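seq:
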Amino acid sequence: MKQTSWLGFRIDRKSAVPVFEQICVDIRAAAHAGELKEGDRVPPTRSFATDLGVSRSTVVTAYEQLVAEGYLNSLQGSGYTLCATGEVELMRAKPEEYTKPTQPETTSTGIFRAGQPDMRLFPHRQWAKTVARLCRANPQSMLDGSDPMGQLELRQAIAMHVAEWRGIEASPEQIIVTTGSMDALEICLRTLTQPGDGIGLENPGYLPLRRFVEGMQLRPEFMELDENGAVLPRGAPSLVALTPSHQYPLGGAMSPNRRLEFIRWAEAHDSWVIEDDYDSEFRYSGRPIPAMAGFDQLNRTIYIGSFSKIFSNALRLGYLIVPEGILDHFHETVRRQGQRASSMPQPALADFIKSGEFYRHLRRVRRIYGERRKDLLERLSEEFADCGHFADHHAGMQVVLHLVRHLKDTDVSARAEALGLSTSPLSSYAAGDVQMNGLLLGFCGYSEAEMAKGLHLLRKAMG
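struct:
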């Protein structure tokens, strides 16, 4: 069934294309065809929604997407008007010309792996166009690895990104491009520590970091967690590693007061705070929580970000933002170990960010991941209430199902793995006397149908 409205606009309720995207496509096409000109107003959101028989939020989402893409202007009290489109590449396809992306058949293999993005959603066509354009215009830039800190264009784009999204004011010179968060963590440890130094780690916390710290002959000083986040270390470690915007693996954000306590602690002990901001963009309610490094103004906080979760885990790109006072020491470490991050995707990623394509992709996957998260939580509430409970932090890429006492997470995880699932036992992330019993269930990389099949198998694994 199709409904026709303003400017002959049609929505197809049987289409796989979301209604808000159908609205976007037709407005872009109307602008390209000259049916809309610069300064023309589009219908008010409320009346347009009534006309179409859809919710007002659907129309608002479409208009805000077009504002983000540069097609519309939004002025308080004046509604939305068309921008100049001379330099904007308009999409000409109508909704009925879209085909749903081909996805592999539903499978149970590896379902619920924590932190796994869905690479089927990657904007392959837009990325290919960006790479092709750069190869034609400046092919040597794709192989320019002369600066071990990373190509300037990407560092400039990252500086713009963290200023807008994370509230961090940093110059491109303070940014080091890495192969991901673990590479950035290694650079920090090699720069700021000596064998035998104490390192404050959250408990439970990121297991690969704990193993790496032990492998470098450093001494972990485990910090317990309470309702405000990690508790200040009892000793005086050289540095602490935190996930304040979304604690891994439990979830939840560190309170503002606790953040301030850590900053004051670092100043008093001449120590450093490493902020691992691995998936902060995935917040499904409200605005992203400002980064601790922005709150600290990069005084005692070293910021780590990654594109593996929000864009592509195949590009292997992340970044490190360093306080100016210790930047020379970090540069020395990077020059000594040599450049690790591939230079080839860096100019393309910089262009992708500056053109707005990166943010279109980010908004799309946030919406889809949010829908998947909602579906998973509803199913857990309905089908697994007798097995355990969970806390909804409205953020992240995984949910922790805290199991009832008679279900041991390592046993359930082993049985689930035998059935083809990938559910990490929560107890494996804890050290010392800290007792944890639960399962990490990743939801971003799997469709609702795949998770439904996975939950059916997980129920069998519960015994």
